[in-house]
Amino acid sequence: MAGLKHIKSKILSVKKTSTVTRAMEAVSAVKMRKSQQRAIHARPYARAALRMLGTVGGSHDAAQHPLTREREEGKIGIVVITSDKGLAGSLNSAVIRKTENFIKERGLSSKELVFICLGKRGYEFAQRHGYEVVHYHTNISDSIDESDFRVISEQVISLQAEGVTREFHAAYTDFRSTFEQEAAVHKILPVSLKVMQRIVGSITPEKGKFAEERNDAGNVAAYTIEPDPEEVFNALLPRLANVAIFHKLLESKASEHSARMVAMKSATDKAKEIAQELTRKFNKVRQAAITREVSEITSGIEAMR
User: Is 2-24+265-304 a CATH 1.10.760 domain?
Assistant: First the structure.
């Protein structure tokens, strides 16, 4: 009977775990849908930004702006976007692995890098490898509050404009579908038409009802800008950089909740399998105990005769 009690206790424990993972799956599903909607609703703004860059991208003044100018001096900046929490499958490890590969492929040393870490897992990675972390943000709202977003954008833009960095890249998770997310490292600064096209391309699917938006990009043209090109670009280019960073955050949030939902669904399914297996084991042990007791009774009766 002690064995039966132990098995029954394990069954109850597994079922309780299943209840928790099912609840977490439901919460992640709701958050995922909200993140997906935000990403979809932000697409028109990204496409408009791409058209604006196409309109003024051929200007000599645009090419000389600190946010568009290519230069040799300065460090490589990386915005690493991960989650604060686990239980999201291989989401965080994939981003970290992609970042490591990027650093190795470029042959960069720790002295040539600066990090802005969004999320605890990315920060732990940078600290572990001795990389310079100039800014660290945690507990970023799922709705990505404007106050949080503006602070992050200003930090990235400031480092680039002041010449501390010559390039900025974002290591994040590209959201493809509920069951498919892909870690990626994409360039976000200096701002260029190619950078913006990649951003718009990554947020617009190849198939489906939004697929026709992929070709809505516009062409580069040279314009004379009046009255003051510097004033125009000082207002426009930071906003284009904001678009790049904002969409990486949206993609990462949607990916995080999708990965967590899938992980929790897998955990729930596995818990059900274990509970069923334990129930079968319980029934076998119980049946064996009953058979043994019947056999003992029968033997006792036979002995009494």
Answer: no
Exposed/middle/buried for residue 250 (C-beta within 10 Å: 0-12, 13-18, 19+): buried
Q: What is the pLDDT of residues 2-48, one digit of tens each?
A: 577 888 888 888 888 888 888 888 888 888 788 777 777 777 777 77
Domain ranges of the chain: 2-24+265-304, 27-259
The set of residues, in sequence order, having a beta carbon less than 8 Å from that of 224 and lying 6+ positions away, is: 59
Tell me the C-alpha to C-alpha distance, in Å, between residue 299 and each of 1, 64, 127, 289: 21, 100, 72, 15
Whole-angstrom Cα Rg for the chain: 28
CA-nearest of 235, 253, 230 to 145 is 253
Tens of pLDDT, residues 201-245: 665 555 444 444 444 444 444 555 566 666 777 777 787 778 778
Q: CA–CA separation, 248 vs 243, rounded Å?
A: 9
d(CA 233, CA 196): 16
Q: What is the mean pLDDT of the chain?
A: 79
Residue range 27-259 in CATH 3.40.1380.10:
yes
Calpha distance 119→282 (Å, rounded):
44
Closest CA to 116 of 92, 133, 138, 141: 133
Please give the full DSSP string across 78-91, using - where no structure is assigned: EEEE--SS--STTH
